[in-house]
Amino acid sequence: MTRTEAVTVLALPKTYSEAKRKAARGLILPGDYEFDTTLRVVGEMKVGKDHTRKQETSADPWALLADAVSALASQVYGDDQTILEELVSTHNKRSRAQRAARGSRIQAEAKGLYKATNPPEELIVKGRVSVKAFVEIKKSEAR
């Protein structure tokens, strides 16, 4: 793809507002259409500089729970099923408020530990594209 084609590909979707696209869609009935259109598109496009952004990583809570269950099972119970039954039984004995408070405390501690041992990832973010353009339809046939 040439640089000119790349500019055109980026600019065309932005030449019509969302409102105009919705209005045009409202005029078209379901069906198959063939078209042959020649356009003249004139405008300006500004592309911002790429930049980096830090993205915090987060643990998968279910994977973390599976690791905890397996570690505890191997040390105390011998198998995952026994400890899961014990965990569910203990969970069911607590009130909803007790479960929520304990869950919030443990979640906060786990997030803190995870964050301390897993630095943020640096992501490259592409610069913003803004377009001011005019589309002139030179010739259009729809069948």
Structure characteristics:
26% strand; 143 residues; 5 helices; 4 strands; 50% helix; elongated; single chain; alpha+beta; two-stranded antiparallel ribbon; 2 domains
Task: Set out the fold topology.
Elements: H1 3-11, H2 18-27, E1 35-47, E2 51-55, H3 61-77, H4 80-93, H5 96-117, E3 121-125, E4 129-142
Antiparallel strand pairs: 1-4, 2-3
Helix pairs in contact: 3-4
Structural notes for this entry:
This protein is an alpha+beta fold. It is 50% helix and 26% strand. It folds into two domains: 3-50 and 129-142, no CATH class; 59-122, no CATH class. It has helices at 3-11, 18-27, 61-77, 80-93, 96-117, and strands at residues 35-47, 51-55, 121-125, 129-142. The model has no long low-confidence stretch (mean pLDDT 85).
In short:
The chain is α+β, with helices and mostly antiparallel strands. It is 50% helix and 26% strand.
Give the total of domains: 2
Radius of gyration from the CA trace? 28 Å
Q: Give the fraction of residues assigned to helices.
A: 40-55%
| Cα distance spanning the termini | 30 Å
Portion in beta strands: 25-35%
The number of E-state strands comes to 4
What letter string, H or E per element, gives the SSE order?
A: HHEEHHHEE
Q: What value does the average pLDDT take?
A: 85
**In this structure, how is the largest beta sheet organized?**
2 strands, antiparallel
Assembly of the depicted chains: single chain
Strand order of the largest sheet: 1-4
Low-confidence stretches: none
Structural class: alpha+beta
Count, helices: 5
